[in-house]
Design brief:
Blueprint (H helix, E strand, L loop, with lengths): L7 H31 L4 E3 L45 E5 L8 E6 L13 E12 L5 H16 L8 E3 L12 E8 L7 E4 L2 E12 H9 L4 H11 L19 H26 L1
């Protein structure tokens, strides 16, 4: 007897059903995590933010992103109007201030989605979601997140703590803000750093706006430059909040002494890093 012919259309449909189910499970898992970490969002973009549908669309091609973004233009229009709503490739959730979080918090939802996976992986999607904090509710914050996210989508890359990114202009478009770069670091509100979804793991990482001089200093410090600048901003009272109106901390008279102390700690840690890592194994 001959083997039965495989129905290719049925096979493709079953694969697409598996993909959509994993995508939905990941969305639900991430949404629960966000509620545990941040509570209820104040607003969400796009407004139709919700679990992806399980409906199989036979004429739909599976892709990892839906747009082309020019990385040389950090302020091109990336809004809910030109985001693929069929699978909501990217949403931004905004959380207003509360007694324990006296600032606005924005976080992406979609970079870690398993767009092209049919089974759970070690890393879900592009392996991260991005945050930014601001003193007030302003449109530049989610705009920066969208630009960074779609850069990841289009270049099949990811971001991790320690990375420094030049924006090519002020962080608040059309302003004279001195913040023209961001550093990527761990967010205080996501202390576990690495979280598990049904589709795999992902990190919640924070973008902090910094000046050209602050970024240059970070680049001058071996291995721990981003940490040094993040610690400097803490000592200055800015913490992890990006305030586009703040001045450059490198111009302050007390900055050299602060940086000397911070760098000394980093140098000591680097010298003993091998022993510390060995003890933790």
């Amino acid at each position: 007897m001959s083997e039965p012919e495989i129905d290719e259309a049925e096979w493709e449909r079953e694969r697409e059903e598996k993909r959509l189910l994993l995508l939905r499970q990941a969305w639900l898992g991430r949404d629960r995590l966000y509620r545990d970490l941040f509570g209820e969002p104040t607003w969400v973009s796009p407004k139709n933010y919700g679990p992806p549908s399980l409906e199989v669309k036979t004429d739909k091609k599976v892709t990892s992103g839906s747009m082309s973004v020019d990385p040389t233009n950090p302020y091109q229009s990336v809004s809910e109007d030109n985001v693929d709503s069929a699978e909501q490739h990217l949403a931004v959730l905004a959380y207003g201030p509360d007694p324990f979080r006296p600032h606005w918090t924005y976080i992406t939802a979609g970079i870690s989605s398993p767009w092209v996976h049919y089974e759970p992986q070690e890393v879900s999607g592009f392996g991260c979601e991005l945050m930014i904090k601001s003193p007030v509710d302003l449109p530049w914050a989610p705009q920066v997140l969208r630009t960074m996210a779609f850069y990841i989508f289009n270049h099949a890359g990811t971001l991790s703590p320690g990375v420094r990114i030049g924006l090519g202009g002020p962080i608040q478009a059309g302003s004279d803000s001195a913040l023209r770069n961001v550093i990527i670091y761990y967010a205080d509100e996501a202390p576990d750093c690495w979280y598990q979804l049904p589709s795999g793991g992902f990190g919640i990482f924070l973008a902090i706006g910094v000046t050209e001089a602050e970024c240059r200093y970070a680049e001058s410090v071996e291995k721990y430059g981003t940490w040094c600048v993040e610690q400097l901003l803490r000592r200055k009272g800015y913490g992890q909040i990006t305030d586009p109106t703040r001045r450059c901390t490198m111009d302050d008279a007390d900055t050299p002494a602060m940086l000397s102390s911070i760098k000394q700690f980093a140098d000591t840690f680097r010298e003993n890093e091998a022993d510390i890592m060995g003890e933790n194994l």
